[in-house]
Amino acid sequence: MPDRHWGRTWALSLVLASTAIVLIEGSWRTQGFRPSVGDDPALWAYHRGRMSTSHPKTFALVGTSSIQSAFSVRTARTRLPGYRIAQLAVRGSNPIPSLESLAHDPKFRGIVICSTTESQMADVSLVPGKGQYVYVDWFRRDSSLYRRLDRALAARVEEALVVRNPRLGFANIFQGVFGRSAGFGPSPRIMNFERSRLLDFEQVPRQQVKTWRNKQVLGWRTNLRRLPRPARAWLARARQLESGIERIQQRGGRVVIFHPPLVPESRTFTEQAVPREDYWDAFAAGSSALVIHALDVPGLADIDFPDGSHLDYRDRNKFTHALLDELERHGTFNGR
Q1: Predicted confidence band at 42 (pLDDT cuts at 50, 70, 90)?
Q2: Are 139 and 44 in contact (CB under 8 A)?
């Protein structure tokens, strides 16, 4: 074929490929699928890297999927213009390693909200190489600037195109088509580029949500039963967080230790098993951090977490505004 025809060939190939993508994209969307970003240590490392700056207007959130589902980074940006905001929470894992990572970063002088609980603050099972330590180690050892930017670019594409949804991998499609996966279909869970988890509980049967809720409540009670006893033993371990808190605040940063909301079933048991005056309030009295319990925040005490731990995406703005209002009331953003 003469060289002059190669341009036409490439142009035709590009048109055909683009057309195929548009048709496939449209097909998945008509079936209810939505774009979603795959969460992994590389994407976490990108956002963690944005916190390694001496600029005081940085705002990091560490925690679990509870704060990922409840806090809207995009809403916060409208309230805090000029701030770099990073969602560093990781599903199903203790946030203390992420707090330690920020504490040992001499460049970080911003605000960090650590969403945590009594069981996480004195977790004797927390060991290097597991949970959020995996993410911290990736950032420290395995993530160059190039790799972080490469992952960020890929995540932007995933956020825009359904065909890049990790749920639509070949194996999942194959199992769904041939009936091996009864659960194949649009997911009620969506992850965006900011690593926020958007949950739509209206897509989930009520009985399934109830089952999840019962499981979460049972897990909560089990974790509380494992706490060090008596209360002073728990307090001695929880106060080990203070060294990291002081590191950040001595550099001009600010640390907020935040207890997430509890559903009524968990709230009653918690007050009996770990009375606030002996546990949470005792820690707050001796900490240099701003310590906030959601039960004390207007608008958060009565907020409902359908599955016992996560918020429906329709309530994210309410939660975010209520928490930011409380931080402003304490002067957290003053002088930055």
Answers
A1: very high
A2: yes
Indicate whether 317 belongs to any domain: yes
Q: Which residue has the tokens 């997911």?
A: 187
How far is residue 138's CA from residue 150's CA, in Å, rounded to a whole number? 15
Minimal CA–CA distance to 192: which of 270, 75, 309? Answer: 75
H or E element: which one contains 143? Answer: none
CB 195 within 8 A of CB 40: no
User: Strand pairing of 197-199 and 189-191?
Assistant: antiparallel
Distance CA 73, CA 86 (A): 8
Tokens at 143, concatenated = 């993530």
**CA distance linking residue 68 with residue 150, whole number of Å:** 23
DSSP 72-129: -HHHHHHHSTT-EEEE---TTS-SHHHHHHHHT-TT--SEEEEE--HHHHT-TT--TT
* Total tally of structural domains belonging to the chain: 1
CA-wise closest residue to 309 among 221, 212, 226: 212
252: number of Cβ within 10 Å: 13
Q: Containing domain of residue 74, as a range?
A: 41-165+185-329
Q: Please compute Rg for the chain using Cα positions.
A: 22
Assigned domain for 14 exists: no
| Per-residue confidence (pLDDT) for residue 286, from 0 to 100 | 95
Q: Which tokens is 313 given?
A: 């995406």
Does 270 fall in a domain? yes
CA distance 142 to 239: 31
Determine the distance from the C-alpha atom of residue 291 to the mean position of all C-alpha atoms in its chain, rounded to a whole number: 20
Does 66 reside within a domain? Answer: yes
Does residue 130 contact residue 168 with C-beta atoms inside 8 Å? no
Note the pTM of the prediction, 2 decimals.
Answer: 0.88
pLDDT of residue 123: 81
Residues 51-93 have pLDDT tens digits of: 999 888 999 999 999 999 999 999 999 999 999 999 999 999 9
Residue 306 sits in a domain whose CATH number is 3.40.50.1110
- The Cβ of residue 57 has, within 10 Å, a number of other Cβ atoms equal to 16
